């Protein structure tokens, strides 16, 4: 109990400190932006509204990004095929696009500025965790990667995903809703009117962890959901492709907050009534977790026995395996069944990842290979999920540059 009060106090102090950095009028204006209008446009990817925003690397706001920044709300579709509004950010470097070329083959290369859909990793289910909010306050932990993409000359769009920032609730780990949000963020960015951003230019997808899941889902859905997009490559790192396996891996460990987030997200996406499965303690733990961002969510649920959260007395990962309704909902989120064959993909996974079970990521890559995709699969032995994320960055940036440059894609499917 003391630990919870301490964490709650720190969270409150953090929130107070952040609020002191933002003028009250600006904060209210930002919150008004996330209110969803009664009527949405018919076409997916249509911008509902947009406004000037900002991007800082730290909360003191000493280093504004050299980019035009727009916060956007756009029309998308959820897992049940229903219209939704989602939010995100579009960033355009202020420097001109310099065509990357192979000096031995100068006719290759992309002449139009590419747009990277940078799909964020887990930020938390709370509305305050939305990347479009955290980027503007200098609190986004992936801000340095975004800065690197801008420095390389890419335009960048960053989705908040469904229900983060906007009503009603996050659909964390829901394959279709997440993939759709990514593809519609690309469409919206191309329709944003930012000077120098092509309306139908080359697109790259990139993300790690939840962002890897979003990238992989969007890669599978692109051919049917957004066939007009000119996607030239995708990087998907540490992909939670099989939630049944990931749940077993997370059970009882430090990062059980991600398991609780997934329980809430999939229940929301698939219209599952959690009161049929979770007891009062479980419902309270899920509700608490839903209100927190990633870092502050870890301690309250770490190393807990999740059997105390369920009406049946089963651990969450066991319930996921044995209950037909829950298992069916999780199997709908499987990634790997529909190979992205229109563009090459880079899949990366550390064998020493402490969050994402490594073999299920490789299994996804193998399924894509069997389906005819061009897959560059990269393993590493960099310890921890966070360490591997940093370790794969040079490979990611090299892969994106190679796609822009028109270099032949690596395909090591035969070695998998």
Automatic annotation (TrEMBL):
Q: What is this protein called?
A: Alpha-beta hydrolase superfamily lysophospholipase
Q: Give the matching Pfam families.
A: LIP
Asked whether the keyword Hydrolase is assigned, the reply is yes
Q: Which InterPro entries match?
A: AB_hydrolase_fold, Lipase_secreted
* Molecular function terms from GO: hydrolase activity
Keywords of this protein's UniProt record, alphabetized? Hydrolase, Signal
Q: Decide whether keyword Cell division is in the record.
A: no
Lineage: superkingdom = Bacteria
According to the record, the signal peptide region is 1-29
Give the organism, scientific name.
Arthrobacter russicus
């Amino acid at each position: 109990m003391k630990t919870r009060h301490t964490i709650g106090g720190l969270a409150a102090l953090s929130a107070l400190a952040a609020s002191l950095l933002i003028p009250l009028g600006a904060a209210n204006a930002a919150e008004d932006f996330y209110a969803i209008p009664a009527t949405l446009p018919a076409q997916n990817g249509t911008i509902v509204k947009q406004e000037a925003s900002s991007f800082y690397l730290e909360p003191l706001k000493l280093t504004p990004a050299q980019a035009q920044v727009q916060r956007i709300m756009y029309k998308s579709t959820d897992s049940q095929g229903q219209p939704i509004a989602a939010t995100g950010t579009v960033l355009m470097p202020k420097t001109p696009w310099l065509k990357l070329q192979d000096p031995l083959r100068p006719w290759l290369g992309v002449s139009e500025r590419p747009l990277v859909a940078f799909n964020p990793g887990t930020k938390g289910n709370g509305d305050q965790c939305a990347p479009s909010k955290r980027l503007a306050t200098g609190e986004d932990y992936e801000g340095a990667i975004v800065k690197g993409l801008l420095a390389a000359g890419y335009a960048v769009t960053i989705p908040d995903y469904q229900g983060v920032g906007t009503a009603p609730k996050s659909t964390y780990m829901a394959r279709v809703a997440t993939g759709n949000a990514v593809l519609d963020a690309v469409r919206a960015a191309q329709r944003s009117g930012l000077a120098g951003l092509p309306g139908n230019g080359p697109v790259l997808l990139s993300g790690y962890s939840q962002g890897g899941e979003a990238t992989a889902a969007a890669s599978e859905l692109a051919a049917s959901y957004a066939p007009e997009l000119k996607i030239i490559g995708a990087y998907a790192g540490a992909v939670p492709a099989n939630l049944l396996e990931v749940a077993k891996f997370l059970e009882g460990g430090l990062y059980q907050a991600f398991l609780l987030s997934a329980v809430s997200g999939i229940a929301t996406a698939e219209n599952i009534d959690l009161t049929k499965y979770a007891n009062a303690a479980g419902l309270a733990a899920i509700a608490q977790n839903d209100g927190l961002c990633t870092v502050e969510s870890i301690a309250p649920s770490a190393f807990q026995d999740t059997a105390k959260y369920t009406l049946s007395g089963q651990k969450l990962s066991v319930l996921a395996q044995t209950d037909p309704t829950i298992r069916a909902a999780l199997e709908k989120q499987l990634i790997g069944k529909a190979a992205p064959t229109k563009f090459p993909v880079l899949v990366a996974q550390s064998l020493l990842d402490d969050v994402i079970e490594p073999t299920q990521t490789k299994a996804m890559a193998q399924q894509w290979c069997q389906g005819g995709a061009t897959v560059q699969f990269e393993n590493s032995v960099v310890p921890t999920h966070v360490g591997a994320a940093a370790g794969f960055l040079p490979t990611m940036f090299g892969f994106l540059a190679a796609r822009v440059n028109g270099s032949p894609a690596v395909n090591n499917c035969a070695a998998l």
